[in-house]
Amino acid sequence: MAAKRSASKGTTKSTKSTAGAGSKGFTAEEKAAMRERAKELKAAAGKAESEKALLEKIATMSGSDRTMAKRLHALITASAPTLVPKLWYGMPAYTKDDKIVCFFRDAQKFKTRYATLGFSDQAKLDDGGAFATLAWLEGCWQGTVNQREFREQWLPPRGGMLIGAGQSVLRGKMQDYEFLRIEPRSDGVFFSQFGGDRKETSFRLDKVVNEDKDTIFTFANTADAFPARLIYRRGTEGWLYETIEGKMNGTDRQVIYPMRRVDCETSELINR
What we know:
Blueprint: H1 2-17, H2 28-42, H3 47-59, H4 63-79, E1 84-88, E2 91-96, E3 99-105, E4 116-119, E5 139-145, E6 148-154, E7 162-170, E8 173-185, E9 188-194, E10 201-211, E11 214-221, E12 229-234, E13 239-248, E14 251-262
Antiparallel strand pairs: 1-2, 2-3, 3-4, 5-6, 5-14, 6-7, 7-8, 8-9, 9-10, 10-11, 11-12, 12-13, 13-14
């Protein structure tokens, strides 16, 4: 995280230096960026129109910059769907409450050697970075249905990844266990799980919606298999509802695992 912040500051410094200490005006590239900014301020566009303009801008970039910008757009819109894509001084950017969170500056625009992904203070990288929308999973969760006890434990997000483990016990005997992982990839955010002799199953984050006071994260299976969807619903007062659903033998199936946040050592309830 610190490396990203320092990189962002470094690029700002290099941009200013292009005019030179004794320069009396802006460079041609800076003037062009300001003209683009003037056009952006005149255009009153909604989120869909802003995203369309952003994608059109990405399409004009050179090969490697275009590929990188497309992948970043897919990653950001999947992992942080509340951010609004828009153009900012002719650069693809993502905002929250009309404030810039991050932006992508292609190398060709300011004739630099490398493209740059920059962050503003609004990104709050020290608070969890790109995984802020899922960092709440950190900790232990526990529930019981029909004498079946199930439990999940998630480590704090580190290195752009969430790592966890789950287990279920029936009448005191181990029934199942699995290892869990949530990570960003070039084409989205993925939830992967495997355990025992089962192959790894991956689910791609499909949508995030708010319903009343709950936030619902829906992951879609990347293969044509059961479960088709894995849903994590963050409720109030420390509740988590994990749901698996899809068709099995031609019949719709749905299983819900209600869990509460608990202290990892004492298993006492935590209402948050």
